UniProtKB/TrEMBL annotation, chain A:
Source organism (scientific name): Nocardioides deserti
Taxonomic lineage: Bacteria, Bacillati, Actinomycetota, Actinomycetes, Propionibacteriales
Catalytic activity: N(2)-formyl-N(1)-(5-phospho-beta-D-ribosyl)glycinamide + L-glutamine + ATP + H2O = 2-formamido-N(1)-(5-O-phospho-beta-D-ribosyl)acetamidine + L-glutamate + ADP + phosphate + H(+); L-glutamine + H2O = L-glutamate + NH4(+)
Protein name (Swiss-Prot/TrEMBL): Phosphoribosylformylglycinamidine synthase subunit PurQ
Keywords for the protein's UniProt record, in alphabetical order: ATP-binding, Cytoplasm, Glutamine amidotransferase, Hydrolase, Ligase, Nucleotide-binding, Purine biosynthesis
Active site: C85, H194, E196
UniProtKB/TrEMBL annotation, chain B:
Pathway involvement of the protein, from the record: Purine metabolism; IMP biosynthesis via de novo pathway; 5-amino-1-(5-phospho-D-ribosyl)imidazole from N(2)-formyl-N(1)-(5-phospho-D-ribosyl)glycinamide: step 1/2
PANTHER family named in the record: PHOSPHORIBOSYLFORMYLGLYCINAMIDINE SYNTHASE SUBUNIT PURS
Organism from which the protein derives: Nocardioides deserti
Gene from which the chain derives: purS
Keywords in alphabetical order: ATP-binding, Cytoplasm, Ligase, Nucleotide-binding, Purine biosynthesis
NCBIfam families attached to this UniProt entry: phosphoribosylformylglycinamidine synthase subunit PurS, PRK05974.1
The name this protein goes by in its record: Phosphoribosylformylglycinamidine synthase subunit PurS
Location within or outside the cell: Cytoplasm
Gene3D superfamilies: Phosphoribosylformylglycinamidine synthase subunit PurS
Assembly behavior: Part of the FGAM synthase complex composed of 1 PurL, 1 PurQ and 2 PurS subunits.
Functional summary from the UniProt entry: Part of the phosphoribosylformylglycinamidine synthase complex involved in the purines biosynthetic pathway. Catalyzes the ATP-dependent conversion of formylglycinamide ribonucleotide (FGAR) and glutamine to yield formylglycinamidine ribonucleotide (FGAM) and glutamate. The FGAM synthase complex is composed of three subunits. PurQ produces an ammonia molecule by converting glutamine to glutamate. PurL transfers the ammonia molecule to FGAR to form FGAM in an ATP-dependent manner.
Highest rank taxon of the organism: Bacteria
Enzyme Commission identifier(s): 6.3.5.3
Amino acid sequence: MKVGVVTFPGSLDDVDAQRAVRLGGHEAVALWHGDHDLRGVDAVVLPGGFSYGDYLRCGAISRFSPVMTEVVEAAGRGMPVLGICNGFQILCESHLLPGALIRNQRQKFLCLDQRLRIERTDTPWTAAYAEGQEVVIALKNGEGAFVADDETLDRLEGEGQVVARYLGENPNGSLRDIAGISNERGNVVGLMPHPEHSVEELCGTGTDGLGFFALATLAAEVFA
Amino acid sequence: MPRVVVDVMPKPEILDPQGKAVLGALPRLGFSGVTDVRQGKRFELEVEGEVTDAVLADVNRMAETLLSNPVIESYTVRVEQDA
């Protein structure tokens, strides 16, 4: 599959995400924030970083970039979209995912090896995992606390839209230990931890993140 | 030049870690008696011509779509008179 990785002004992890896509066995296609088309990709990754310097709110300005109009439209048709960290923030600002991400409860930027439990596996991004599987994936964020009103949180839990949860001590104050969520359909996933940093033994936290980039079999299912 | 001010504040039910940090710093500096601090943003918009209802309606739309995130923030719009 061709997987597009969008570079916004201030994206940091776009090249790592492209590498992870290739390690996952797919072709990585560089997409530019000013693009008006998605160059025929089958899936899109919005990478981590500090697009537009996190000015105004994280992801608030990127949301209005030309490529996001295309991403929102494609997501509506069922194209798999994964937003990592800043990408997750952009997905929330775009209303592709509910809720918002605010400053970590303890104000500090975090960088650690984080244990997670994968809870939703019927998404194109998490189908390689077993439900309830525990993984260790790099976590690094300053504004990673997921918040939403109780009604939204109940709905996310009730509909099985919580994709991953933090294990152990809650690192950033995310409500209900939420590390990642999906839309109802499951094609759009937002994740605060960075699976693209956990794809090789040489560096990072092992290879637990690779599953997010396997994509493989499930695209067919999602497009059906 | 008329100025329209948009104040954006975190909703009361949303934890405001920045406000909390400021609240924590005050006693350390010897200031007492402050029981809570909320930190928000103030936008000053210089607009052309008269501030009509249409202009205010536009500013409200700006506040709703860009200046604030309605999931976590509320906003108020007001016109500031020239000094």
